[in-house]
Amino acid sequence: MMGENHWKTAITKVEPNKLLVRGYRIDKLMGRVSFSRVIYLILKGELPDEKTGKMIDAILVSSIDHGATPPSTLAARTIASTGSPLNSALAGGILSIYRYHGGAIEDAMKEYIEIVESGKDIAKTAENFVRRKLETRKIIFGFGHRYHKRDPRTKKLFEIAEELGFNGKYIEAAQQIASSIKKIKGKELPINVDGAIAAVLCELGFPPELGNAFFIMARTPGLIAHIHEEKIRMKPMRKIDPVDHEYNGPLEREI
Ligand code: COA
Predict the structure, then answer these.
(1) How far does the centroid of ligand 1 lie from the alpha carbon of residue 46, in Å?
(2) Whether residue 107 sits in one domain with residue 44
(3) For residues 223 and 101, is the Cβ–Cβ distance under 8 A?
(4) SS3 of 106, please?
């Protein structure tokens, strides 16, 4: 019997002893299809090829952690230091991901889409876009970094995109924005990891409103590691200095 509040969902069908994610049996996906491909499946509704899975995997690895200084890490550690449970500390960390930290992906995607979908010459459109933004002192999302001048993650993501055949117009738009900033401002603002992920997600056909989700999915294990370390290594309610800390994990090693 369907009630008056009956509604529909197209994500997962649940039956006794059987789960279908977008039509695929979960026990058939398990052990056979990577988590990254299933992320694409659950978000877009279709199972992608191996290449798309590899690209998403690279995005997730690129943003798994950035040490102890990012706002989300400090927020998560601060909450964990009060004795709050993992879920509270994790939620607090995730709440601090937006516009200026990890959450520039959505806005950057909108910028690239505006440039590419204008249908005009990408280099000229990017230059006009940068000029407009800088003249009105507006932020160009996905560019600039507090720490890195050349973000190694951007370079690698674009290399992988090229190897896998995803280097299309959106990545070109990002690169044209970067060179226009250099030309107009006389100073380099590197494409940061958000800006690079944004370009790749456009190439993969994701809509901007799902962009920041990729940073959140990527950073969740990193935040959990920080929360756990805070709980097992540190005194409760310590004064957490955002800058005065050092790394004492393993030295650089080869995979
Ligand atoms: N768009 C426009 N101008 C920018 C800019 C951007 N994305 N990033 C930096 N600038 C400007 C600064 O305002 C500053 O201008 P000034 O020299 O006229 O004073 C100059 O470039 C140098 O800035 P810098 O010191 O290198 O960066 P910052 O530490 O002040 O800011 C960010 C770092 C990340 C907050 C900043 O680059 C930013 O807001 N980027 C956009 C948001 C984003 O992509 N966030 C994700 C980060 S992973």
Answers:
(1) 37
(2) no
(3) no
(4) helix
Q: Which domain holds residue 21?
A: 11-48
* Angle (deg, nearest 10), helices 193-203 and 105-117: 50
Mutate to test the pocket of ligand 1, among 134, 192, 193, 197 (most ligand atoms within 8 A of CB): 192
Which protein residues touch ligand 1 with a CB less than 6 Å away?
100, 104, 139-146, 189, 192-194
Number of structural domains found in the chain: 2
Same domain, 84 and 160: yes
Measured CA to CA, the distance from residue 118 to residue 112 in angstroms comes to 10
Q: pTM (2 decimals)? A: 0.95
Instruction: Pick from 69, 100, 130 the residue to mutate for probing ligand 1's pocket: most ligand atoms within 8 Å of its CB.
Output: 100
The predicted-structure confidence for 93-131, as pLDDT tens digits, reads as follows 999 999 889 889 999 999 999 999 998 999 999 999 999
What is the mean pLDDT of the segment spanning 174-185?
96
CATH assignment at residue 141: 1.10.230.10
